[in-house]
Amino acid sequence: MTVEMHNVTFDCADARKLADFWAALLGWSVFHDDDPEVVVAPSFPTRGLGLLFIPVPEGKKVKNRLHLDVAPTDCTRDEQVEQAIVLGAAIHEDHRNEDGTGWVTMTDPEGNEFCIERSTVEKGGPQRGVFRLG
Length: 134
Prior knowledge:
Elements: E1 7-12, H1 15-26, E2 29-31, E3 38-41, E4 50-55, E5 68-70, H2 77-87, E6 90-94, E7 104-107, E8 113-116
Parallel strand pairs: 1-4, 5-8
Antiparallel strand pairs: 2-3, 3-4, 6-7, 7-8
């Protein structure tokens, strides 16, 4: 037996506001109707992973037991960190090293931790859509 992962769910105070943040960060779209729940996904209806935001009355009190790691596809890690700050994120822990390695642990507007890693190009891999031969 197998299962398909459908959503990663975030409990939150303001589902639409938090969904807007994550949609802007990931370049995905926001989907909602009159229901208080909001989905962020690359396309809809989604057959794959989406982010589901559900309003709950209690606030976040402890460190996440699960967090997302993201890596930019069209800019550097440091540029993505700055963009995340513009969108409403904050730096939680800075693990960048002088040699350019490392990551940045950030919090979204409701305090959920996530990490921004280096892009594939920064790690020495091919650019998106570029294939190396041999």
